[in-house]
Structures are given as structure tokens and as C-alpha cells.
Amino acid sequence: MFRKSIVNLASIGFRLFLTALVATAGSASAADPSLRVGAAAVEIPCDDTMDMGGGIHTWKASGAEAPLRATAIVLARGDDKLAICSCDAIALHQDFVDPALERVRVATGIPPERILVHATHTHTSPSTVRVHAYDRDARFVEGLATAIVDSIVAADADLAANPDCRFRYRLGEESSVGQNSRLLLGDGTIFWVGKRDDAVRPTGPFDTDLPVLAFETEAGAPVATLFNHSTHTIGARQPGKRSPAFYGLAAQELERDRGGVHLFLQGASGSTHNLTLGVEEMVTRIKDAVTRAHEAATPLPVGRLAALKEPFEFRIRAFDESAEEEAVTTYCAKRMGTPGEAAATALVFRTQRAEIAPHRGETRKTSIQTIAIGDVAIVAVPAELFTVLGQEIKRSSPFRHTFIAELSNDWVGYVPDRRGHGLGGYQTWMGYHSYCEPGTGERMVAAAVEQLERLHAGTGVMEAPRPSSPSLPPRDGRVPSDAPIHLQDR
């Protein structure tokens, strides 16, 4: 009897404990702010008179097969907000992105460090930067900047329509759209364009990850879907037309088929391209992969929305003019279609080097940004980052889920790893497309991982940004090369 009383008392005590625990959890849940989500897409104005980018020489488009857009999502919990804007453009530059973010801050109150602006890197859009044989198209840049502002402001206004949302996540996979395209060729060079019948092997990895972030109302209605993959965005269905290319085409078709705004973020794809598939097949495979991941996505809590954005310094690399000339002319003469095409291409690189030469060793400043949506982290880098570097960031991240959004907030060209620099190839030839000194990529990885650790621990302070980390190496008598060249510097 005595033992039975003890058991009953213990049982009653345990039930009281559970009741108190549930009540505490319920009150905490009630106090926890709900996730609000807003999304919008704004067309970027352009026409056939604009100078197109994406190649060695500029060209003019004849119409468009689909609109170029700035697509935005705004997430909010209580007073905390984050914004992500993906633009159908080949690249962005901080000289027009930063003023646009200030306009957004005035209109919405969202601080610039909590806004990620991304270029999908479509090669069938008007030019936004000085590269190869052409400059930016000023009218397109002006319209792009306005579209960035308008899309984020519209997404912010859409928050009121979706006051109680849920977040689902799935790490999907697409292994066939793209590959490491820096193939070692029989003569020891690295493939860029032209003949590759003597290809020996790829010289780096291909990232098959395809994360999908789905935001829905409590009733399950789609609000926004974000997906990420890591192949160069080259390929329109109709040659000679403006196009968001295969990723953007897939996003717009998914939007029509499944509902909700869809936006794409390019992963670390400085060393990856599609070499085998047609555009129609690429669009189909990306849509299928996103759909599979979306359907399998599971709910994740969004305990916080956080961001860090900090300066990163680098220098313009030193180079040997005769060695650069030899590498470019030899490759072009052997691999390109005609002697005239080879000579014209070599002249473009020669001209770029002459313009850059006076700036060798100069320091430039860009930024690295990290964003946390619960336990999902996005690392925004301003470069065409080699895949091996992006994978290293993901491996080293303290977050459960991490992915890269390259070409974000600024553009400093290709950033290879040290081994990639040593192998050579187009992505390392000196030009406006590639001018950071060797080691910049490894320093970007270290800075991003250190930032992720502070973001994860909740110790980052944006009001007093830390100096760029790690610091630039000492000059030691040589002129190192790890600084981007921006239009205003020329």
C-alpha cells in the first residue's frame, strides 16, 4: 500500500510536470513571432539597341524569348527582416547596387547589410560591367537598379498578405546539368572553347547539390520558392534573343505551373559549364529536380533571421606580359575556328592587359555576406568562385545547411583556388574577368567561414564591422595580385 502511494504520487508529480512543460512551451510558442513572407517579380526594361554581354565581343539582340526580371523575397519575424533579390543579369557592381540598397532602406527600413542582391549570370542580357571588348550599357544598368528597388519594396508590401507562413527545405540533387569544364587537354592546357577531342580529365569537382527553400501559407499555398545550383548560366532556346537562360526559363515556367514566385541563386560555378546538353533538356532537368525536391521538402523552424556583411580587401595581381601573350595566342591559334577569330580574341585580352597594367598591386575593397534563415545559411560572394572553394565553405560551416550565392552584391571576376591558378586557362588569363592575385580564393573561404561561425554563435555586430579577415599578405617586395578593378578606378 505504501509503495503504491509512492507510485501514485510520482505519477501525479510527473503529470503536473508535463502539464507545466506544455504550458510553458505553449506560452513560448505564442510569444514567438510568426514568419511573414512577401515576394514580387519586376521586369527589367531593355530593348534591342542595348549592348549585350556574355561573349568576347558585344552584340545586339533581336527581341526576347522571356523577360529579364528582378525577383525578390522578403522574410520577417517581428521587427527582423531579410531580403533576397535575384536579377537576370550577367553581373552586378557595388557602384549601382549600394545606392539602390539605400533607396530600399529609406522605403522599407531594411538595412543594406540584411539585403542580398544576386546576378544569375545569364549570358544573354545587356552588359552591366566593363569586360573583354565592351563596357556596361548605362541604360540597362539604370533600369536594373530601379528594378532591384521596386522588386524589394513590392515584396515588403506583400508581407501583409502572408502573415503566418511556414518554411520547408530539401537538399535536392541534379548531377547531369553541368560538369567541371576545366578539362586538362593533351597538350597540358586547360579547355575553354573550341576543340577538345584530346581531353584527358576534369581538373576539379562538380557540385550536384540543388537546395530548395519553399515558403508557404499555413494552408499550403505557395508564396515563394528559392533554388540553387552550380553551372554557368549559358543557354537560351532561341539564338540571338535576350533570355534569362536555362535557369531563369525554368524558374518562370515553374512559377506558372506550381504558383508562387520562383527565384534562382547561382552557386560556386566559376569552374563549371554545361558541355553536352541542349537548352530544352537543361530546362526540363532543372524543373524536374526542383519539383522533386520541393515535393520532398520538410518543415524547418525559423528561430531567427540574421545577417552579416563585411568588407573584404584584395589586390590586383602582378603579371608577366610576355607569358600572358604566349598563353592566350597559343591557345586561340590552336583551338579556335579561324585565324581571324583567334587574332581578334587575342587582341581583346592584349587590350585589357594594357589597361590594367598601371593598376598592378593596387588594393580594392568588396564585401562578403552571410545570411541565416533558421539553420540554413547562405554565403554571398562577389566572384565567379571555383567550385572547390564553395565546397570548402560548405564543409566548414557550423550550420546544418549551407550554400553559396556567387556574383552577389558586386563582381570581381573569376576567383580560382591556388591550384587552379597554377594550371592556367581562360579563368586565370589576365583581364577584367580575372585579376585577383593567387590566394584570394582561399582568403575568401577563410573570411566566409569565420563570419559563419560568428553568425551561428550570434556574436556578429554589424554596427561596428570588423576589418576584413584574414588580412592581406605582406607585400615583401613583390607586387601581389588580389584586388578587383572597378569602373570608377579606370
Describe what is shown at a glance.
This protein is α+β, with helices and mostly antiparallel strands and 490 residues long.
Describe this structure in words.
It is a single chain. The protein is an alpha+beta fold. Helix content is 33%, strand content 23%. It has a domain at 35-306 and 378-424 and 446-460. The protein has helices at residues 2-31, 94-108, 138-157, 245-258, 279-296, 321-335, 339-356, 387-396, 418-423, 440-457, and strands spanning 35-43, 69-77, 80-87, 115-119, 165-173, 179-180, 183-185, 199-202, 209-217, 222-229, 261-266, 272-273, 298-299, 305-315, 363-373, 376-380, 384-385, 401-405, 414-415. The strands form 6 sheets. It has a 5-stranded mixed β-sheet, covered by helices on one side. A 4-stranded mixed β-sheet has the order 1-2-3-4, covered by helices on one side. Mean pLDDT is 90; it is low at 1-30, 461-469 and 475-490.
